[in-house]
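Aim 2 progress update. The chain analyzed this quarter is reproduced below.
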Amino acid sequence: MRLEKKTALITGAARGIGKEIAKRFAEEGASVIIADIDEKAIEECINEFKAGGIIAEGQILDVTCEESWKNAVAQAVKNHKRIDVLVNNAGITIRLPLTELNVEDYERIMSINVKGVYLGVKHVIPVMQNNGGGAIINMSSICGLIGHKYSGEAYIVSKGAVTLLTKMVAVKYAKYNIRCNSIHPSTVETPMQYEFFKDEAKKKERIDEVPLGRLCSTQDVANAALFLASDEASFINGVALPVDGGLTAS
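Predicted structure tokens:
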């Protein structure tokens, strides 16, 4: 068991990528906290896991609210005495070009995608310092590495911020044995994408840009997160890891 005796808090974990990461971590022995803003989705996720013999607990969390973060971290420490792994996975996109995106939607993207990561790091680092170390994994995107022509500008700005926030944390807090890395998927096949992929031309467009010739799966991302969370990655710090089938290499 690669995460035995570790406690992992995962944001946006009731659906999609976060849900797959939570499942993978639990299978590898972690005590998993499914943190999400949607209480009903948390309950459904936990019940689904339970039916498959996987145990996890839920925590309502609005990643944009500092008080919500304080409560979530305090509850995790109360229940487990520690947080060994933080996965800042919660994020959104709005598929509009910069010239059409209103300021309110821009601020919403930045609040969830950047402020949410900042608050998570801020409130979990002191717990990890008391632990004697930990692993932080921030979900960025290929858009945090390149100016991806099919993505919205505001989303690219937000993911670029996550990439450099990750490197700053990695450098500054390594002395406390806290590692911080980011994951950069290409387009992931999730329920959130189903509506988008009803347009077969758009789906083909995304597949054709990937040298391996397929979309990224939630399992692909979860496996990368598992590695970065495990002791196998104990000397990996400040890395921006593409999970993109070679897209950013082409």
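The first strand starts at residue 7 and ends at 11. DSSP finds seven helices and seven strands in the chain. These observations will guide the mutagenesis experiments scheduled for the next reporting period.
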